[in-house]
């Protein structure tokens, strides 16, 4: 397995662990979405800023992007680290009215999303991570039916055995 495959597996596992916390089904890993996310991560590595991909702008995929820069030459990100950062917006989200920062967190746990793919591109002083989701989340007027509070037992500190809820099948995890 390559380092990129390891990164994708780390992202995939972290995504489904966070989704489980919110009571939504696990995502399938899509090789086609890996390719579109990888292509966009590589394009953004050459850009000065961050912008959504044409696929995302047309509403064909949901998209989450993280960029890390450094004055040093080697910059990297771990999959679970990126997912934890995206999930951290949960503390600012209002589950009662579906208002708050819509973006990486809400796409991560969007219940009607079914598949995901990841890309990562790193160069001197910069690393870019892109996740592509299908069907896309963050649909206006659909937050209350797609973004749920964390399960009470998890919120109260009773940790559920998340790893035991997955079954390995050909390197992919399923609920």
UniProtKB/TrEMBL annotation:
InterPro entries: CAP_dom (IPR014044), CAP_sf (IPR035940), CRISP-related (IPR001283), SCP_GAPR1-like (IPR034113). Residues 6-141 form the SCP domain. It comes from the Eukaryota. Gene3D superfamilies: CAP (3.40.33.10). This is SCP domain-containing protein. It comes from Schistosoma bovis.
């Amino acid at each position: 397995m390559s380092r990129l495959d390891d990164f994708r597996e780390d992202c995939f596992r972290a995504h489904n662990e966070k989704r489980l916390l919110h009571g939504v089904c696990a995502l399938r890993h899509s090789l086609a979405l890996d390719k579109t996310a990888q292509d966009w991560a590589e394009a953004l590595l050459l850009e000065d800023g961050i912008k959504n991909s044409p696929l995302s702008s047309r509403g064909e995929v949901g998209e989450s992007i993280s960029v890390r820069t450094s004055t040093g030459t080697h910059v990297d990100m771990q999959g679970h680290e990126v997912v934890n950062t995206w999930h951290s917006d949960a503390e600012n989200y209002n589950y009662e009215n579906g208002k708050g920062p819509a973006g990486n967190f809400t796409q991560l746990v969007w219940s009607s999303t079914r598949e995901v793919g990841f890309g990562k591109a790193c160069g001197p002083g910069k690393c870019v991570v892109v996740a592509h989701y299908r069907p896309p989340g963050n649909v206006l007027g659909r937050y209350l039916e797609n973004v749920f509070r964390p399960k009470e037992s998890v919120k109260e500190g009773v940790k559920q055995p998340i790893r035991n809820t997955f079954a390995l099948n050909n390197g992919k995890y399923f609920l």
